[in-house]
Amino acid sequence: MAERIIGLSPPSPFAFEGNLAESWKQWQKALDFYLTATESDSKSDKVKTSILLTCIGEKGREIYDTSKFENAGNKLKLKPVLKKFEEYCNPRSNTTFERHKFFTYRQEEGQTFTSFVTELKKRSAACEFDTLKDSLIKDMVICGISDNALRERMLREPNINLQKAVELGQASEQTKLHAQQLTEDMEKKIHKGKSKRRKGETKTEIGRHQRGKCPAYGQKCNKCQRRNHFARCCKQTVHQVDDSQDRASFESSSESDFVIESLVTTESEAASEVQQALKIDPLNSDTSAGHWSVTLNAGSQDISFKIDTGAQVNVLPKKLYNKLNQLAHESNKHQPSCPPTMGPPSLYMENVLSLFSIKDKNTTFSLSS
Questions:
Q1: CATH 1.10.1200 residue spans of the chain
Q2: Residue 125: which pLDDT band, with cuts at 50, 70 and 90?
Q3: The CATH number of 95-186 is which of 3.40.50, 1.20.1630, 1.10.1200, 1.10.10?
Q4: Where is this region: Disordered (predicted)?
Q5: What is the pLDDT of residues 149-171, one digit of tens each?
Q6: Percentage of the chain exceeding pLDDT 70
Q7: Which residues pair with 297 in a beta bridge?
Q8: What is the mean pLDDT of the chain?
Q9: What element of type H or E holds 141?
Q10: CA of 250: how far to CAs of 45, 122, 289, in Å?
């Protein structure tokens, strides 16, 4: 009747597993609170024993039925029945194993400091530490926390006790939460500021505009000089030369003056369309001005070579090839000679042909046959 009025629920059935000794202590406390709250503690032992057997569950009732009492009347008395259950649970407590569980426990990833300390206190209850209980819990708090900076802070404290260690841990955890919240608030403000747009400003990301409303329509790309897209959306992999300059240089230059500088692959405005393009520069045009070049001596000719460390194709102009070929033919007229020597022996030179030599500062490269 009292239960219906107050609206209390009885203790959950006792689970006969794990640390039975500690679990039984906690369950017995819950039963005592329930009896007091429902005003059943003043009732007869028979009523209180019946309440116990109702709350303890089926497994507990089986143990009760198989228990032997010295006096048959004690089977309906609360204290003798509680003592039987206590005797059943206490032998299952292994102090060595419980201490092993206590000393090997560490703070888990994502576990709060308060939860970690609470779990250590629960595990220490079955370890029978007596007066060393708080001191050992303090040691395990310092050794088991995952925050190395907090551990160093605790170790610097002289004569630190459990209460001080808990205060430092809770303060550190609270500070981190506040700092994280401030950082998140700041990031939200920055993101909100970046997302604001002036009136009339439109997104220019690829594929983010409505159909037929591309802001790049009719615009000229600063990278490839083509239209209908911006430079940051350009799919071309290399810079192109100005078509007008190439056209003018082509009209004013002879065929033999041209050299193919490089072979490049470009992508057109349509992503699926790939084209091959040849870049052609006249040697005597203005488009070669400012290029990285050096003058090297080939035979008796000084030739300007363009240095292109990334070129995949290098071709000599036909006019230059003809000059070098002419030098090679002229060198064939050279006749072997006997150079003068200081002694009796003489060395006859045969097949001496100096094709060309390249001079760069103090270094000379020669190719002979």
A1: 95-186
A2: confident
A3: 1.10.1200
A4: 188-214
A5: 999 999 999 999 999 999 999 99
A6: 59
A7: 302
A8: 73
A9: helix 133-144
A10: 117, 91, 16
Please give the radius of gyration of the chain, using alpha carbons only, rounded to the nearest integer.
48
User: How distant, in Å, are the alpha carbons of 45, 87, 92 from that of 54?
Assistant: 14, 20, 24
**C-beta of residue 114 within 8 angstroms of C-beta of residue 170:** yes
191, 164 contact by CB (below 8 A): no
Residues 6 or more apart whose CB falls under 8 angstroms from that of 19 comprise: 93, 98, 126
- Cβ neighbours for 33, distance < 8 A, ≥ 6 positions apart: none
Nearest to 87 by CA among 73, 61, 67: 67
Instruction: Dump pLDDT digits (tens) for 245-267.
Output: 444 444 444 544 444 444 444 44
Q: Which residues pair with 295 in a beta bridge?
A: 304
More confident residue, 329 or 320: 320
Asked if residues 343 and 337 have their Cβ atoms less than 8 Å apart, the reply is: no
User: CA 122, CA 139: separation in Å to the nearest integer?
Assistant: 15
pLDDT of residue 95: 85
User: Which structure tokens are listed for 320?
Assistant: 């230059």
pLDDT (mean) for 314-331:
66
Predicted model pTM? 0.37
Taking the C-alpha atoms of residue 23 and residue 316, their distance in angstroms, rounded to an integer, is 93
In a 10 Å sphere around its CB, with 0-12 CB exposed, 13-18 middle and 19+ buried, how is residue 182 labelled? exposed
Dihedrals phi, psi of 48, to nearest 5 degrees: -65, -40
Task: Measure the CA–CA gap between 368 and 351, rounded to whole angstroms.
Answer: 9
Work out whether the CA dihedral 26, 30, 36, 42 comes out positive or negative: negative
Q: What DSSP state is assigned to residue 213?
A: -
Interaxial angle between packed helices 20-37 and 78-89, expressed in degrees from 0 to 180 and rounded to the nearest 10: 160
Number of C-beta neighbours around residue 259 at 10 A: 18
For the ranges 7-11, 61-65, 81-85, which has the lowest average pLDDT? 7-11
Beta pairing, strands 293-298 & 301-306: antiparallel
Q: Do 22 and 125 form a contact (C-beta atoms < 8 A)?
A: yes
pLDDT value of residue 41 = 87
